[in-house]
Design the sequence.
């Protein structure tokens, strides 16, 4: 008689988990969407209207990742430790396009909104690592085409990546953690309601303050991710999660 496998864990992260690494969030005071209109820089129409402006927006954010001051924080590191030490499956679904989860050592990651350090060619559909600035004059290294490169980022109105794989993992999980997200952007914001409908997973929100969707979760832990996430990972690894 083989022992039942421990329940799988799905984790959703948002910009709040990278805040203590020095990266801006979107909707907190002074956040990215208070500095620039999302319609101008995070939509296909905005890119069609002014590709140079959109490239400049992502070039600045990409360059920030190369700043030695921007490092994974204890929250990123704790999630990597959870994946390494938890005996069951752990899948990290991130809305973030920074590379801090990867640099912290997490491996089972789905960057559902794309990745800042990758570029995509609209002419040949190639996705390539990309760390320098990009412009409408940049040539695709794969097909040589000019003017067809765009950030490998999911804009509003575009389908997030690997949704089938994400829903399959959600439908199979026993624990869902939502960390550092305002729960504003769909379909990610709908994951917790999807889980409540099927009633199998224990759901926990970890955020600086309760999000508008806090009431959708079974439990909530509030405060800086750098403190809350390592403490919760320790409890999970000790098997000390009430209600789960
Ligand atoms: C799509 C680009 C359809 C990358 C982003 C219902 C269903 C489906 C779609 C919709 C729907 N209703 C509306 C829509 C459309 C839209 C949407 O959701 N609009 C919103 C504004 C209402 N959704 C879409 O367009 C999505 N696509 O649905 O396609 C489709 C169907 C068929 C065929 C084709 C298409 C695409 C969504 C992705 C858009 N791209 N960004 C980039 O530039 O980064 S979204 C953007 O918001 C970022 O990716 C970001 O990750 C995401 C979510 O934001 P958060 O991460 O939550 O950040 P935020 O600042 O909001 O919150 C931070 C939180 O952290 C706060 O709560 C704060 O308290 C907390 N915090 C702060 N400090 C700390 C902390 N927590 C802990 N510790 C701290 N220290």
Sequence:
């Amino acid at each position: 008689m083989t022992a039942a496998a421990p329940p799988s864990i799905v984790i959703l992260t948002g910009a709040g988990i990278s805040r203590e690494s020095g990266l801006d969030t979107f909707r907190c005071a002074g956040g990215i969407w208070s500095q620039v209109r999302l319609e101008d820089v995070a939509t296909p129409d905005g890119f069609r209207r002014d590709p140079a402006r959109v490239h400049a927006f992502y070039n600045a954010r990409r360059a920030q990742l190369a700043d030695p001051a921007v490092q994974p924080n204890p929250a990123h590191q704790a999630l990597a430790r959870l994946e390494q030490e938890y005996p069951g499956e752990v899948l990290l679904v991130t809305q973030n396009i920074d590379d801090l989860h990867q640099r912290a050592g997490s491996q089972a990651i789905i960057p559902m909104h794309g990745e800042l350090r990758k570029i995509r060619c609209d002419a040949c559909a190639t996705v390539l690592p990309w760390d320098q600035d990009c412009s409408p004059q940049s040539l695709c290294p794969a097909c040589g085409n000019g003017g067809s490169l765009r950030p490998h980022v999911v804009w509003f109105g575009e389908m997030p990546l690997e949704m089938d794989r994400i829903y399959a993992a959600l439908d199979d999980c026993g624990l869902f953690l939502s960390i550092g997200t305002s729960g504003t952007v769909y379909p990610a914001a709908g994951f917790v309601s999807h889980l409540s409908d099927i009633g199998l997973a224990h759901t926990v929100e970890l955020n600086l303050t309760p999000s508008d969707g806090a009431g959708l979760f079974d439990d909530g832990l509030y405060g800086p991710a750098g403190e809350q996430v390592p403490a919760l990972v320790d409890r999970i690894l000790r098997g000390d999660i009430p209600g789960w």
Summary: The first helix runs from residue 32 to 35. The chain has a mean pLDDT of 96. The pocket of BV8 is lined by residues 14-16, 19-20, 25-28, 31, 42, 95-97, 113, 153-160, 180-182, 184-187, 207-209, 211, 224-225 (CB under 6 Å). Strands lie at 8-13, 90-94, 109-111, 114-121, 127-129, 149-153, 173-179, 202-207, 219-222.
